[in-house]
Amino acid sequence: MTILTIGFILIAVLVVLVLMGMQIAYALFSVAFVGIWIIRDSIGLAFRMLELTAYSGIADYLFATIPLFVLMGLLVSVSNVGRDTFAVAEDLLRRMICGLGVATVAANTVFAAVTGVSIASAAVFTRVAVPEMTRHGYRPAFSAGTVAGSSVLGMLIPPSLLLIIYGVLAEVSIGGMFIAGILPGLMLAGGFVLMLIGLTVVAPGFVLSDPESSRARRLDRTIKRMPLNEMIRKLIPIILLVILVLGGLYTGFFTPTEAGGVGAFGALVVALSRRSLNRHKLWQVMKQTGVISVSILLLLIAASFYSRMLAIAGLPTAIADLVSQSGFGPLGFMFLYATIILLMGMILDSTSILLIMVPIAAPIAQGLGLDLMHFGIVTVLAVEIGLLTPPFGISVFTVHNTLNDPDVSVEQIFAATLPFIAVMLLVLIAVALLPATVTIFL
């Protein structure tokens, strides 16, 4: 049996272990350790490489980015910034067709710029937006689907944990990945808005509980408008945080790690100024930050160990040769890769897909002359779609569990997210065909 054959068998074993329920970190460690042991016929080398990988992972200054952005996102979540953002968006957009749906997308877009986690957006806006949309005549399932569909913006609009994880795995600039995600994220948000307006006009029965009523299309104009000073007061905290983090990164004034530190401090000031953070909540936030950060660190160390095993097996080089000989070319490989990720998204979570696929695919993409930042945005877009596709669809399940409405089934929410998936596929194709959408600000 050749080393290459062993490599392919080990990848298959990894997927099987994950599908059987083994945690992805343990599966990666086990497969990588056994792989190095078998390929090099030395258990001592396997232990030595595990030691070196763990040390290099913990010692890397770049990993400080993760806990800082996680802390910032959690502090923002407890300070009710998401609720205020939705209230302002609702007031500004209430006269539009499908105004509350558009307001949900707009609020998710802004909220994503300071959290970076789709699940946080899904949980926050399920409590805030779904009751308000239902009260104004939207179908409950459509309201929940709108929250689930627009929550994926948190994985693309910087700062995003998936962009950080990809940057570490592919060894590209995290600050560059943040900037690269801006235009595709705005394209996705704009596509959602156009889709919601078009859907309300073309298929009002899909959107509204009572299509004959115009109440949900344009909210009652007699409702008292929010005073301008109150609107500004609600928006100032999130605008300042966005300027601090993205402005500092874009101008080169901050490194990603420094931006995370400044953003976390800014979020702490916001939470304290709103008196939404007591000692109990602060302890919960710090504890949750530690749990999430250590989990991600363990995953990244495991993925690095797995990547070294793949390099020893020569798998990326062998697959690159097969792609070159097949005549696919760089673009053909990118679409084949995106298709595989879309299929994996039906059965695996986002982080697991990145940890399994990026160590294999990134060296191949680089060998084919693809820009790794462009390749990364395509990767994250494809992974995002998996957040909405059955049977896994973690964003859909998060919304369903948070909503806890027996009249709204998970199947109905999945059906309501189909238009969002269609928009995401169109944006994925556009970004893949037009690298300038990613590199324009770099």
From TrEMBL:
<dbReference type="InterPro" id="IPR010656">
    <property type="entry name" value="DctM"/>
</dbReference>
<feature type="transmembrane region" description="Helical">
    <location>
        <begin position="372"/>
        <end position="393"/>
    </location>
</feature>
<feature type="transmembrane region" description="Helical">
    <location>
        <begin position="235"/>
        <end position="253"/>
    </location>
</feature>
<feature type="transmembrane region" description="Helical">
    <location>
        <begin position="142"/>
        <end position="169"/>
    </location>
</feature>
<feature type="transmembrane region" description="Helical">
    <location>
        <begin position="6"/>
        <end position="39"/>
    </location>
</feature>
<protein>
    <recommendedName>
        <fullName>TRAP transporter large permease protein</fullName>
    </recommendedName>
</protein>
<feature type="domain" description="TRAP C4-dicarboxylate transport system permease DctM subunit">
    <location>
        <begin position="12"/>
        <end position="436"/>
    </location>
</feature>
<keyword id="KW-1003">Cell membrane</keyword>
<feature type="transmembrane region" description="Helical">
    <location>
        <begin position="259"/>
        <end position="277"/>
    </location>
</feature>
<dbReference type="InterPro" id="IPR004681">
    <property type="entry name" value="TRAP_DctM"/>
</dbReference>
<keyword id="KW-1133">Transmembrane helix</keyword>
<comment type="function">
    <text>Part of the tripartite ATP-independent periplasmic (TRAP) transport system.</text>
</comment>
<dbReference type="Pfam" id="PF06808">
    <property type="entry name" value="DctM"/>
</dbReference>
<feature type="transmembrane region" description="Helical">
    <location>
        <begin position="413"/>
        <end position="441"/>
    </location>
</feature>
<keyword id="KW-0997">Cell inner membrane</keyword>
<feature type="transmembrane region" description="Helical">
    <location>
        <begin position="102"/>
        <end position="130"/>
    </location>
</feature>
<feature type="transmembrane region" description="Helical">
    <location>
        <begin position="60"/>
        <end position="82"/>
    </location>
</feature>
<comment type="subunit">
    <text>The complex comprises the extracytoplasmic solute receptor protein and the two transmembrane proteins.</text>
</comment>
<dbReference type="GO" id="GO:0005886">
    <property type="term" value="C:plasma membrane"/>
</dbReference>
<comment type="similarity">
    <text>Belongs to the TRAP transporter large permease family.</text>
</comment>
<feature type="transmembrane region" description="Helical">
    <location>
        <begin position="289"/>
        <end position="315"/>
    </location>
</feature>
<feature type="transmembrane region" description="Helical">
    <location>
        <begin position="175"/>
        <end position="208"/>
    </location>
</feature>
<keyword id="KW-0472">Membrane</keyword>
<dbReference type="GO" id="GO:0022857">
    <property type="term" value="F:transmembrane transporter activity"/>
</dbReference>
<keyword id="KW-0813">Transport</keyword>
<keyword id="KW-0812">Transmembrane</keyword>
